[in-house]
Amino acid sequence: MGHWLQRNIIEPGKLPLLLALTAFVLTFVITRVVTRLIRAGKGPFGNVEAGGVHIHHVVPGVILTVVGGFGAVASGRYGFGAAIGAVVFGIGAGLVLDEFALILHLQDVYWTEAGRQSVEVVVITASLVGLLLAGFSPFGVNDVSPDELQDRAGVALNVAVNFLFSLIALSKGKARTAVFGVIVPLVALVGSLRLARPGSPWARRFYRHRHRARAKALLRAYRHDRRWSGPRRAFDDWLGGKPDPPRP
Q1: DSSP string spanning 207-248?
Q2: Most trustworthy range by pLDDT among 120-129, 132-141, 204-213
Q3: Which of 72, 90, 111, 153 has a CA positioned 20 to 30 A from the CA of residue 65?
Q4: How far is residue 157's CA from residue 169's CA, in Å, rounded to a whole number?
Q5: CA distance 232 to 161
Q6: Is the pLDDT of residue 66 over 90?
């Protein structure tokens, strides 16, 4: 079955990546369903505790990620062992990134506003892996011609230029654009050419004495946030659950 998939559906060697992505997404979805049921007090599920300590699912996630990662590396890119390792790694990664905000803030912020960061990281990760499965390579190396691939200097220059665009986009406060720009160079190029967000390192450095550019950046950021913050919040609430209201 695995060989049939490799020959007819995906490129050779990408089956473990497909299995890992599938396990990652399914684990995140199932985990969110279970945690929402626990939060609502429904179903047979409950928090796991040992000795009075709440065991977060990031703990088994780390163990599965380590086991699956080393297992996949030891098994190579083909065979049953590589497939099992990829699935175990995907499950572990899904459990870990579902509590990314807990790791970042070093406190239980799962159902708070800060906990939305976990959902955002999971969506970005799944999207980037999907782009890799679709044939995109980091820094646009897939756009290099065969003749250029034989020239190491040409490849190095292509990587350096695309990486520079991503760094500029990141300095302009466009973190998502910079991350996706690593895989799709055109995205990083657009992000590097557009106005920086207010408060970003680029704006503080280059807009300090450019009052017109600073005002334009503020207006554009306001319009962008006003247009997209509502739909993005609704999507996060639907996918990850609505956070608790802040305590007074």
Answers
A1: SSS-HHHHHHHHHHHHHHHHHHHHHHHHHHHHHH-PPPPPP-
A2: 120-129
A3: 111
A4: 19
A5: 31
A6: yes
Instruction: Quote the pTM value.
Output: 0.81
**Backbone φ and ψ of 106, nearest 5°:** 55, 35
Phi-psi group of 65: left, alpha or beta (phi > 0 → left; psi -120 to 50 → alpha; rest → beta): alpha
Joined together, the tokens standing for residue 171 give: 């300095």
Residue 120: predicted pLDDT: 92
Count CB-CB contacts under 10 A for residue 81: 14
Q: Are 21 and 133 in contact (CB under 8 A)?
A: yes
Tokens in use for 126?
């799944």
**Per mean pLDDT, which range of 20-24, 99-103, 113-117 is the poorest?**
113-117
- Report the residue count for the chain: 248
Tokens of 50: 């040992």
Q: For residue 241, give the nearest of 49, 32, 15 by alpha carbon.
A: 32
Give 5's pLDDT tier (boundaries 50, 70, 90): very low
Please count the other Cβ atoms lying within 10 Å of the Cβ belonging to residue 58: 19
Closest by CA to 201, choosing from 153, 152, 167, 235, is 167
